[in-house]
Amino acid sequence: MPSALPADTRRLLLVACAVTALVAGSVGWYAGQTVSPECTFATSSLGSGEDREAAVERAYHAAVGAGDCAPPHARWRFWRD
Predict the structure, then answer these.
(1) Do strands 73-74 and 34-35 pair parallel, antiparallel, or not at all (unpaired)?
(2) How far from the centroid of its chain's Cα atoms is residue 28's Cα?
(3) Which of 6, 11, 41, 47 has its CB 3.0 to 4.6 Å from that of 63, i.e. a possible disulfide?
């Protein structure tokens, strides 16, 4: 039984669908990332790089808990405004 679409048209349709799926997946991944709004807070740490990063993370969560900073949220929430 012969195909209703020529081979070139089928190939073009397949490529278009693959590109659409890749773009949609990339946008979905990017939109779903968690971001932290800009916030100013103070912290102090005398340890290594990992210790400093942990101290900054703890200070940020303390500032969020105290209501001084907005909590982290998905990136796409900015797109609705």
Answers:
(1) antiparallel
(2) 8
(3) 41
Give the span between the Cα atoms of 1 and 81, in whole angstroms.
Answer: 53
Q: Is the predicted pLDDT of residue 80 greater than 50, yes or no?
A: yes
Q: Residue 5: what pLDDT? A: 67
Dmax over CA atoms of the chain, in Å, equals 75
- Domain limits at 40? 8-80
Of 70, 64, 42, nearest to 55 (Cα)? 42
Residue 55 lies in a domain: yes
Say yes or no to pLDDT of 15 above 90. yes
Q: 0.85 cut: is pTM over it?
A: no
* Number of independent structural domains in the chain: 1
Return the SS3 of 74.
Answer: strand
What is the distance, to the nearest Å, from the Cα of residue 33 to the centroid of all Cα atoms in its chain?
A: 2
Query: Which tokens is 68 given?
Result: 């001084």
Q: Judge whether 1 lies within some domain.
A: no
